[in-house]
Amino acid sequence: MGDTPDLTLWGVGTSRTIRAHWAMYELDLPYKVKPIGPRTGETKTAEYTRLNPRQKVPLLQDGDFCIGESAAIVAYLSRTYSTEGRQLIPERQRDYAAWLEWCFFIVAELDSTSLYVMRRHRADALGPIYGIAPDVVAKAAEYFREQLRHVEAALADGRTFLMGDQFTSADILLTTCLDWAIAYGVGICDNAHPYRDRIRERPAYLRGQEANVPLAPIVPPPAKPRLAGD
């Protein structure tokens, strides 16, 4: 690309916001960060609502263009800013279709249908808002493990990544779901462990993790006691 892109990424602190940060580093893109978090009130400001009426994170600004949804953001970045040696989407038509199938499967079956259902109904997550439901959480975890058999089958032939030898944004989506599942105590298939370990060693993954950490709140220093005569 001839010109330096004008990229701003809104959002930190979740299993979805890290996907966009990670993709930025995989593509070696300079960008600015707006470290707002979900359910903090920051997504409901007038400024942010003008950019994203859905009031969700992450959100990518590319100049005067805005796009939300983590999977869409990483796909857009790769399609727009890939260079030789730095691509997150396959080029061949049928490989592209297979990549698209993986992305839809991961987002629909592993993320929103399983892990996010657990998040909505766990007592230590969003349960106090949406209703604490241990049976729903257990069933969602069971469904996640059932669906993960497709990942197990894909990795059984010894391939390095979901698409074979090429690292793609499907691996970003899957790894964040595996991290999320482990954090929730959900078992993952045996061959997903070495796969996840390899990917978590990628420099872009490590830098994305660092960029995704919410800023610590600023705590004012304690007031000095008033002395006699002050």
Structural summary, described in words:
The protein is an alpha+beta fold. The protein folds into 2 domains: 7-81, 3-Layer(aba) Sandwich (Glutaredoxin); 93-208, Glutathione S-transferase Yfyf (Class Pi), Chain A, domain 2. It contains 10 helices and 4 strands. The chain has helices at 17-26, 46-51, 70-81, 93-121, 127-130, 134-147, 149-155, 169-183, 192-199, 203-211, and strands at residues 7-10, 32-34, 59-62, 65-68. It has a 4-stranded mixed sheet, with helices on one face. Helix 4 packs antiparallel against helix 6 (134-147) and helix 4 (93-121) packs parallel to helix 8. It is globular and about 45 Å long.
Largest sheet, in brief, is:
4 strands, mixed
CATH class group of the largest domain: Mainly Alpha
Q: What is the rounded Rg? A: 20 Å
Q: Could you tell me how far the N terminus lies from the C terminus, measured between alpha carbons in angstroms?
A: 62 Å
The strand order across the widest sheet is 2-1-3-4
In CATH terms, what is the fold-level topology of the largest domain?
Glutathione S-transferase Yfyf (Class Pi), Chain A, domain 2
Spell the H/E element sequence: EHEHEEHHHHHHHH
Global outline: globular
Low-confidence stretches: 226-230
How many helices in DSSP terms? 10
- Average residue-wise pLDDT: 92
Main structural class: alpha+beta
- Give the tally of β-strands: 4
Query: Under the CATH scheme, which architecture of the largest domain would be assigned?
Result: Up-down Bundle
Strand content: 5-15%
Overall helicity = 40-55%
**Could you say how many structural domains there are in total?**
2
